[in-house]
């Protein structure tokens, strides 16, 4: 049985993952309307991954005798001035998510819930990869600057990149 404090913290994390999925979905849709098809595919996939992060938590809470709460969400930002602005927002968001996950891990330790602590380790590892990927993307965009040819190649190449393929991009 989950302690109340843990259940509450996990439900907060469910909301954060749902928000992430929604934010990336809005980003994907914006990119699609800008003719950035590769970026849109990357973001649609990222949105699905975040939904999977949320589902994993929903099922964990319910399996441990708690009650997962499916949250109401705000409408995410729908306009971005450019790709730099979009990916900087994504990076900042992931840094925020990492802080929230660390906070949840700390609550698990304080409450001596080692099972949930163990479950959360997957999220800790995932955040390291997601932040690293977002930083690599920002480095590439900073290198490209406003170069149109570079932007074209960026959009083409990002289509096949996902968190799990960030070390070796998929063919
Ligand atoms: Fe990108 O965040 Fe989920 O965990």
What is the name of the CATH architecture? Answer: Up-down Bundle
Principal-axis shape equals: elongated
Structural class label: mainly alpha
> Which ions, cofactors or small ligands are bound in this entry?
hydroxy diiron-OXO moiety
What is the string of SSEs from the N terminus onward?
A: HHHHH
> CATH superfamily membership, which one?
Ferritin, core subunit, four-helix bundle
| Percent of sequence in beta strands | under 5%
Averaging pLDDT over every residue, what do you get? 94
Largest sheet properties:
none
- Helix count equals 5
The figure for the number of domains is 1
CATH topology: Ferritin
Question: What is the CA-atom radius of gyration, in angstroms?
Answer: 17 Å
**Proportion in helices:** over 70%
N- to C-terminal distance: 45 Å
Top-tier CATH class: Mainly Alpha
Instruction: Enumerate the spans where pLDDT stays under 50 for 5 or more consecutive residues.
Output: 167-171
Query: How many extended strands?
Result: 0
């Amino acid at each position: 049985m989950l302690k109340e404090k843990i259940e509450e913290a996990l439900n907060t994390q469910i909301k954060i993952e749902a928000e992430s999925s929604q934010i990336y979905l809005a980003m994907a849709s914006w990119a699609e309307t800008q003719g950035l098809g590769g970026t849109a595919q990357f973001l649609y996939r990222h949105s699905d991954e975040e939904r999977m992060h949320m589902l994993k938590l929903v099922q964990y809470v319910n399996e441990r005798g708690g009650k997962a709460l499916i949250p109401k969400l705000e409408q995410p930002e729908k306009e971005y001035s450019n790709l730099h602005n979009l990916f900087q927002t994504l990076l900042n968001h992931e840094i925020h998510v990492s802080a929230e996950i660390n906070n949840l891990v700390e609550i698990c330790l304080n409450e001596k819930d080692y099972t949930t602590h163990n479950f959360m380790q997957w999220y800790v590892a995932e955040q390291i990869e997601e932040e690293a990927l977002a930083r690599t993307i920002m480095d590439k965009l900073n290198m490209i600057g406003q170069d149109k040819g570079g932007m074209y190649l960026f959009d083409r190449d990002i289509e096949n990149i996902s968190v799990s393929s960030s070390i070796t991009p998929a063919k």
